[in-house]
Amino acid sequence: MAALHGLIRGLLNATEAHEGVTARGWVRTRREGKGFSFLELNDGSCLANLQVIVDDGAPGSEALPDFQTGASVEVTGDLVASPGKGQRWELRATRVALLGQADSEYPLQKKGHSLEFLRTIAHLRPRSNLFGAVFRVRSRLAYAVHRFFQERDFVHVHTPIITTSDCEGAGEMFRVTTLKGDIDAKPSADFFGKPAFLTVSGQLEAETFACALSRVYTFGPTFRAENSNTSRHAAEFWMIEPEMAFCDLAGDMDLAEEFIKELAVYMREQCGEELALFERFVDKEVRRRLDFVIERPFQRVPYSEAVEILRRSGRKFDYPIEPGLNLQSEHERFLTEEHFKAPTTVFNYPREIKPFYMRLNDDGRTVTAMDVLVPGIGEVIGGSQREERLDQLRENLRRQQLSEADYWWYVDLRRFGTVPHAGFGLGFERLLMFLTGVANIRDVIPFARTPGSADF
RNA sequence: UCCAGAGUAGCUCAAUGGUAGAGCACGCGGCUGUUAACCGUGGGGUUGUAGGUUCGAGUCCUACCUCUGGAGCCA
Fold first, then answer.
1. Does residue A143 share a domain with residue A48?
2. CA proximity to A387, closest of A349, A417, A346, A418
3. Domain enclosing residue A207, as ranges
4. Which of residues 343-402 of A touch strand B (CB under 7 A)?
5. What is the full per-residue pLDDT of chain A (456 aa) written as tens digits?
6. In angstroms, how far is B2 C1' from A211 CA?
7. Domain co-membership, A65 together with A155
8. What ipTM, to 2 d.p.?
C-alpha cells in the first residue's frame, strides 16, 4: 500500500482498485456538476492527470471554490474504475484539503500558451504538459548518457569549471574575479593569482585522465560568452565529452555513431508518452527522424569528397563551396537530408580550419577531425583523434601562434608515455532538441542564460 | 554582432488616420458523469517607452527597449 500513497503515476498504473489512497498535486482544472465536482490533478510524475470526484458535503469540500487551476491540494479516497471515457482509474474523494491557493492571477491557465510567454514564467512552466515532459525526458536522457558510458567502462571525470587557461580555443570566456574596479590592472592580486575564467570545454583535462584511466567522459556545465542570439545557442549549457586512449579516428566515429543511435532508441522505448506529445504539439517529424537515425547506417565521407558532392549537386547554395572553407549549415543538411538520406559523418578536414590539438594526417594537409550530421539539426557531434606526437604538437602550437608554456601540462602528456587517443564533444541540449523536436534551446534548459538574459 | 518581423485586457489575437473589440481566463446565474465541458451574464486597457506629424494616432515618422525568426560564431 505504501507505494500507492506515492505519485499519481503509480495510481494511474494500478492494476486493481484500492481503498484509502492519497494523492497530492496541483489542480489543472475543475468542473462542477450537480452535487459533485471533477478535479484534474497533476503532480508532474507523468503526463496524465488524475480525475478526482468530490461529492458536495465531503470533508473539506466547502473549500472547493478555491480549488482553482494551479492550487495545490491533497485528496484521500478510493481508487476505482472510471465509468467515464478518457481514463481508466479515478479517485472518489472521501476527504479533500487545500494546501496552497492559486488565485485568478495564476499565469498558467488551462489554455494554450505560447512558448515565448512560458519563457517569461520559467518558474511555473514546468507545471505545463509540454515542459513537464521536456524535463522528465531531460532527466531520463541524462541517465541514459551515463548508462551508455558506464556500461562501456568509461570513468566519469569532473573536470574543473573554473580554469586559468584562457586559450582553450573554443570561443569567448566569462571572467571569474574577486577584484573590484580595473580587474586587469594587477591580475596577480586576484583570487587565483592570475586571470580565471569559466570553462569552455573539459577536453584538455579529460585527455590527461584518458592517458591514465584509458576511457573517460565528462558531462557538465560549459560556458560561452559569445554574443550569439539564435535558437541553438546558450551562454551556459551541458556538454558531454568522451575521451579514449589507444583509439584512432575510426574508433572515435564508431563510438559517436553508436552513442547517437542508442540515445534515439532509448527515447523511442523509454519516453513514449512524452514522444507522442512532442509529435503532436511540437514536431510532427520527430518520430520519423528518430527512426531515420535508428534504421539507416551512418555514411562516412571524407571532407574532400563531401565538397565534390556539393559541387556536383547542381544545387544553388547561399555560401560558396571551396576546398579549405568550412561547411555551412545548409551544406551539412544537404548531405545528410538529401544526398545520403542517412546520418552522415564527415572526416579529415583541412588543418587550417581546425584547432591545434587535432592529429595531422600523412598528407600534411588534413587533420583527423570528424563531424556527425543528422537531419533537421546538422552537426550534433564534433570530434577528432588528438595529436599525440610531441614534435608535431609543438609545431601545431607554433602555427597557431599559441605559447607552449601555457600548455606545458598538455604537452607533457606527449613527453611521458604518449598514446594515440581520440574523443568528441556533444552539446546535451542540442541532443535534446534533436530527440524531442523542441526548436529552441531555451526550451530544453530549465532556466536559460542567453545574452542580456539570466533571470530566475 | 548583422538582416527581417512583432509589441493592443492575465493569455491568444482583431481594429481604412475618426467612440479600442472578440475568444479563453476570472466573478455571478443556469445546466450537465464531466473530459482545456457547455449556455447566459458581468467586471477587466497609460495600445512597449520617449518624442514628432495631424483638427484627430493603436494605425504615419524618428530614436530607444524587449521579444521572435534567420545569418555569422559554435556545441
1. no
2. A418
3. 125-161+199-443
4. 378-382
5. 444 458 999 999 999 999 999 999 999 998 887 888 899 999 999 999 999 999 988 898 888 888 888 889 999 999 999 988 888 999 999 999 999 888 778 888 887 788 999 998 999 999 999 999 999 999 999 999 999 999 999 999 999 999 987 655 667 899 999 998 888 888 899 999 999 999 999 999 999 999 999 999 999 999 999 999 889 999 999 999 999 999 999 999 999 999 999 999 999 999 999 999 999 888 888 999 999 999 999 999 999 999 999 988 888 887 888 888 888 888 898 898 889 988 999 999 999 889 999 999 999 999 999 999 988 778 899 999 999 999 999 999 999 888 899 899 999 999 999 999 999 999 999 999 999 999 999 999 999 999 888 888
6. 43
7. no
8. 0.88
What single-letter amino acid sits at A83? P
Judge whether residue A208 contacts strand B, using its CB and a 7 Å cut-off.
Answer: no
Residues A47, A135 within the same domain: no
The separation, in Å, between residue A118 CA and nucleotide B70 C1' comes to 22
d(CA A65, CA A140): 37
| A230 CA to B1 C1' distance (Å) | 12
Position A324 in a domain: yes
d(CA A152, CA A242): 11
User: Are residues A291 and A362 located together in one domain of the fold?
Assistant: yes
Q: What is the CATH number of the domain that holds A7?
A: 2.40.50.140
Sheet containing A344-350: order of strands: A155-156, A215-223, A236-245, A421-427, A378-385, A366-374, A344-350, A299-302
Query: Which residues fall within 8 angstroms of residue A423, CB to CB, at 6 or more apart?
Result: A203, A206, A207, A210, A241, A242, A243, A244, A252, A383, A384, A386
Specify whether the backbone of A115 is left (phi greater than 0), alpha (psi in -120 to 50) or beta: alpha
CA distances for A377 relative to A137, A161, A294, A433, angstroms: 19, 28, 16, 8
**Inside any domain, residue A14:** yes
Pick from A54, A83, A100: which residue ends a domain? Answer: A100
**Cα A26 to the chain's mean position, in Å?**
27
Rounded distance in angstroms from the CA atom of residue A371 to the C1' atom of nucleotide B11: 43
C-alpha Rg value of chain A to the nearest Å: 27
Closest protein residue to B35 (Cα–C1'):
A86
